[in-house]
Amino acid sequence: MSGVIGLPEPPEAGVSALPAGTFEGVAVVVTGGGTGLGRAIAIEFARLGADIVIGSRKPEHLDAGRAALEKVGAGVLAVGCDIRDPAQVAALFDAAEQEFGLPGVLVNNAAANFPVPAEDMSPNAWRTVVDITLNGTFFCAREFARRLMTAGRPGSIVNVGASYAWTGGPGFAHSAAAKAGVKNMVETLAVEWSPYGIAVNGLVPGLFPHEDMTADIQQNLARTHDKDAAQPAMRVGRVRELGWAATFLASPYARFISGHTLVVDGANWQRRSLTNPTVVPVREQMNRGPFAP
After folding, report:
1. How far, CA to CA in Å, does 39 sit from each of 42, 114, 224, 243, 254?
2. Residue 99 — φ and ψ, nearest 5°?
3. Strand pairing report for 27-31 and 261-264
4. Annotated catalytic residue within 23, 164, 244, 248
5. Is 164 a catalytic residue?
């Protein structure tokens, strides 16, 4: 393809997009911050001087996150927390306050997801994904905001979303519905809480391959033989690029930005074909046979 060059590569890993020390003395809570994109976001906050509190249900994820963050010299607190339980969420923030003082930033990254045709989805699968992704995000945001309001302190919330909140997500009806709720929450809570100094924004990642992707997602990606050529940018994202976006949204340099959802995907979610490709039912894409009750 003559003239096609794609979007340039970002600066090298370890470079910060904001001035050194931007988050010095600030405690940042990252749910699901022990692995994957959550850990990448936490690392960029840590490089800018933040103390990091990571929450996760799984001890092995907490251990992995703590080790990665300690390598960049961050103060780290790893707390076991199921965000579906408001009492555990409150305990997470209690621990954060005791260790580092009142947090100034919350990144709602924890979520649940797996591909399944809607007709095969069990009630428990639906409830679990919605409970973690939507309800858990709200419980964390509410706990954070209440504490800041009580203290008369400003802060910032970044909710990690998904582009199928706008478009729908065949094969992911549970997650798409929950993420649509998360996006709406950004817009609603920004209006409610901006008077109290609390900014609320969303961050939507595109394709950022990393070692912690689930087997289901890896299988989906394996069906695309050339993932770079499948993106308008002609490349996939680098996890540090998502971290840079998150730190900017939560930084003093973005204080007049609230209620916005930033999509970081090289324009992939807006891609359309000039002619529609042949429709392949979701069941067939997942190599499932005919539906049988």
Report:
1. 5, 20, 26, 9, 22
2. -85, -45
3. unpaired
4. 164
5. yes
Residue 15, helix vs strand vs coil: coil
Domain map (residue ranges) of the chain: 27-267+274-285
> pLDDT tens track of the chain, all 293 residues?
668 888 899 999 888 889 999 999 999 999 999 999 999 999 999 999 999 999 999 999 999 999 999 999 999 999 999 999 999 999 999 999 999 999 999 999 999 999 999 999 999 999 999 999 999 999 999 999 999 999 999 999 999 999 999 999 999 999 999 999 999 999 999 999 999 999 999 999 999 985 655 555 555 555 554 678 888 999 999 999 999 999 999 999 999 999 999 999 999 999 888 888 899 999 999 999 999 98
- Helix, strand and coil content of the chain, in percent to the nearest 5, comes to 45, 15, 45
Q: Indicate the residue type of 276.
A: N
Q: Decide: residue 192, CB within 10 A, 0-12 exposed, 13-18 middle, 19+ buried.
A: exposed
pTM of the model: 0.92
Three-state SS for 105? strand
Q: Give the integer Cα–Cα distance in Å for 133 and 116.
A: 16
Question: Cβ atoms within 10 A of the Cβ of 21, count?
Answer: 11
Cα(93)–Cα(33) distance, rounded to whole angstroms?
Answer: 15
- Residue range 27-267+274-285, CATH number: 3.40.50.720
Helix axes 59-71, 36-47, angle to 10 degrees: 30
